[in-house]
Write a structure and sequence with these properties.
By secondary structure, the chain is an alpha+beta fold. It has 2 domains: 16-173 and 231-320, 2-Layer Sandwich (BirA Bifunctional Protein, domain 2), CATH 3.30.930.10; 330-421, 3-Layer(aba) Sandwich (Rossmann fold), CATH 3.40.50.800. Helices cover 41% and strands 21% of the residues. It has 16 helices and 16 strands. The chain has helices at 16-35, 49-57, 61-65, 85-94, 97-100, 139-155, 174-188, 195-203, 214-222, 232-247, 292-295, 310-320, 337-352, 366-375, 386-391, 411-421, and strands at residues 39-40, 46-48, 69-71, 77-80, 104-113, 125-134, 163-168, 253-254, 266-273, 282-288, 303-309, 330-334, 357-359, 380-384, 393-398, 403-408. It has an 8-stranded mixed β-sheet. Helix 1 (16-35) runs antiparallel to helix 6 and helix 6 (139-155) packs parallel to helix 10. The longest helix has 20 residues, at 16-35. The two termini are 51 Å apart. The protein binds one RNA strand through residues 1, 6, 9, 60-62, 65-66, 83, 112, 114, 116-122, 126-129, 196, 207, 212, 260-262, 271-272, 278-285, 306-313, 333, 335, 365-375, 381, 383, 385-387, 395, 397, 399, 402, 404.
Amino acid sequence: MVKMIKAVRGFKDVLPEDTVYWRYLEEEARTLFESFGFREIRIPVLEKLELFQRGIGSTTDIVEKEMYVFEDRNGELLALRPEATAGVARAFIENSLHMKDPVNKYYFFGPMFRHERPQAGRLRQFHQLNVEAYGVKSPSLDAEIMAMLHMLTQKLKIDDALHLEINHIGCPQCRPIYRDILINFLNNQKEKLCKDCKRRLEKNPLRVLDCKKEGCKNIASQAPQIIDYLCDQCKDYFDKTLDYLAVSEVPFVINPMIVRGLDYYTGVVFELTTDELGAQNAVAAGGRYDNLMKELGGPDIPGVGFAIGVERTVALMKKRYTLEEETPLFFFAVMGEEAKRVALPLALKLRQEGVKCEMEHSDKSLKSQMRKANKLKVRFTVIVGEDEVRKGVLTVRDMEEKKQFEIQAQISELLKLAEAAR
RNA sequence: GUGGGCGUAGCUCAACUGGUUAGAGCACCGGACUGUGGCUCCGGGGGUUGGGGGUUCGACUCCCCUCGCCCACCCCA
């Protein structure tokens, strides 16, 4: 037997029964985002490796060990994007969009690539819906964006499964101060920390705060919290953001343990989490990234945004309701060459009018064609056989009413039926 | 990268302590007045039991290796 070629590990096919959900999500997101003034941008899947090293941070796990890196034929190092924000920022700078657009709000949809071990809710190729707003640093904008995310989950009827968790991780002034205090605190109890946390202590001390191990949790619960060490500006900014959320009736909880994994985050950060999907509980996440643009060699322009995990969102949708593909209105059951000569032009004209229909092309018995029509869940089966051809008529069977009748073999007659069935 | 679990028809699963041509349901195809669906009945196709090696008279069942999938850690959407 010839060896079967299978998809690459962690890369999945999305079959028609599932694309219904994907499309529903995309369409709801598009109309919602656009109503907020966000415009669609599309960027390449492949970027120079350096973009991600500088944008995301060269010591983050994503850049250090999860990227698909390739050498181009000219020796240049390229990477499949592990996330979208760095690329959007690059496009923004490269096209001088801050000089052109009065409003710099973009949304984006596409695949991302991370070489991790697959598990529930985690793939090597996965999809994100991203939202990015550049040029303004304002609590009301941050709150508006979180409200938009909340509205999307309401439209998708999955908001009951989600919690908006929010935190503020400080600015370049106050974060280092807190960081030192935390490191100092943790160092004093270093022996009680787990193996992973000792490593985290070196690399990303904030992560110790959300370790799942009991011992570390106990220590973390007594650790100093960033909120108590924010500078006046950050504190004020955070308070205002929370107030805007409250008056907008967006439910949220403050979670001082939220830390983002990408270096570019500053200030307000948030996650949309669920406890219905196993260990990978973040359905969306985002925050401010006020230094990203500058670090990529662009203008000093602040940004805020979030990314929604499409597969995870679809998983929640599927747990709650069923979406089905649109069924054809007509099925042409044909017997013989002459019948096909009658049916084909009629089917083509119906589609021209936007009516979904199917016709049989293989030479099967009427019984088998009826079975197919039934399986397709069509409303009308149009039977065309020798008798019909001779008389210039069509036999129409109403599959729901289980009644059938003859009509003239004219497109106008079929359109009348289509109109009546709507 | 590290752990654990699992691999039998398209899908969900069977097959006593190793023992005859590996079964069932669903799905698929066809038939039951050679032009009529959904129900029922009947029939049919489809598996080198993930792959390789070993033990044995005999392996889906035992052993080894390998590949793959799943879940968790790590990390994150």
